[in-house]
Sequence to fold (487 residues):
Amino acid sequence: MPKSNLKSKESKATEEKPNEKKENIIKSIVLSIFDENGPTPKLYWPQELDDKARFSIAMKTISLLMGESTYQNGTETEGINYFGILPFPDLKLNGLTYFFLIPEAKARGQALASTITVLIDEEDKVFFYENMKYLRIIIDRAATRIQDSNNPSEYKEILANLRVELFEFTKELKDPLSPRRQIKILLTGLDKAGKTSFLYGVKRKYSEIIKSLPTKGVDRTEEKIFEEQNSTITIWDLGGQKQYRERFLEQGKVYIYNIDLMFFFIDIQDIERIKEALSLFKNILNSLKELDEYPPIVVCLNKFDPDLKGSKEIFESLEVIADEINENTDTFFIKIFQTSIFDHWSLITAYSYGLSQLSPNRELFRNQLRKFAKKINSDSILLLNENGIILSTYSKSEIYEKVFEISAPHFETLYKTFKEFKLLKKDFIVSSGITDESKKVVFKKIIVEKYNLYLLLFIEKTLDLEKIEKNLPNFSKNLIDLIHTYI
Ligand SMILES: Nc1nc2c(ncn2[C@@H]2O[C@H](COP(=O)(O)OP(=O)(O)O)[C@@H](O)[C@H]2O)c(=O)[nH]1
Ligand SMILES: [Mg+2]
Fold:
């Protein structure tokens, strides 16, 4: 596949000063474009980056972006703009890749699939996770300049500029990198809002919910999404009693400093304390602002038990709360969920959503699901890990998504029950005749390297199990790299 007909004047992103390269954490930058020759590393730095390395970078990044069928059918160009972290084990490098399209009238789909990949030594990978929000801005800016330029000869200067900006940025890093990314998740809210029960519920430790005593101070637990992950995820469950709350706000820094994700719980059944809850929420946001910290926030309107779903009073109160919370969305990224310990899936959905915010690969994951859905004619896909945490979803419509979210745990239970009683010959169950004869739901175990994952598929047209089996290996293969760098 490698083509060696690169023009030499194109092949160098910028002049480099001696020994600058050794000092900097950034080892390489590659601009790849899918042109008439296939995925091609158009510009790269350093100049001595070998042929094989730069072509493998172009191949891997562009093929994840495009998917094999898209080469022939590049009509879908909308919404292609995402970041991902990819391992390059052969090169002992990790890459942060930005996928984007360069408008090009003559090209198929009027655009050229392109990637900018910034590479560092694999042992430095924490650098990407910790600095994602700044790196995104810097790289996005370069990509936008490329998209806006009508003249490929300008790319060289844009890339040289990108390198200068990245070097500027990395010069300011003082701390030596820790080998693992430390992720801190905070559960907050008034006492009795249901924080501790939520965590037990997510972990299916139902007997603990009954036994649980008010949390004193802070309880710390760890989360693992994959057995091997690049991060240590610590969940801080804060005691909500008044004395702890006061301490919390006094010493806010200790708790909210450097958090990566915050869950805030409101007991919607405790109407008398809703004001108090909202005021605590505001206080916490103010503390965050003072610290200049803007973690994603998941608000759980909790204790929305199944038997309350018809209550008009609750419904109206939920709207009022949501409005107040949403007043802060210009400064914070906030997502609201309705949760209840009696609805396991509501917990999982909120929890998984929060965790997915921590993964730089969430957009890439979704893209893989979307591609797979297309190939197998599926209208909805959900990918779960062994613990039932949703790694990613893709749905053609919101209705499907909703129905799927509600029914997924039932299929999981069905699957596990049949499995337990050894009634499954193969690793899937198919259910049909749900809404009408032709619509099918498939719940299937897939093995990706050493991980057991579960797929839930909704198929409106004819179910073709062979087609699913045929496309699975490629789908799984594409997931491997994404899983290695998921979090
Ligand atoms: N009805 C209902 N009760 C809940 C729910 N979640 C928690 N609880 C109850 O609310 C009380 C306080 O829960 P806890 O988890 O200790 O709250 P925390 O102080 O925020 O950690 C306990 O009696 C729980 O059983 C829920 O979703 N619905
Ligand atoms: Mg508690």
Q: What stands out?
A: Residues 296 and 333 are 5 Å apart (CA to CA). The pocket of guanosine-5'-diphosphate (ligand 1) is lined by residues 189, 191-197, 209, 212, 214-215, 240, 265, 302-303, 305, 340-341 (CB under 6 Å). The mean pLDDT is 83.
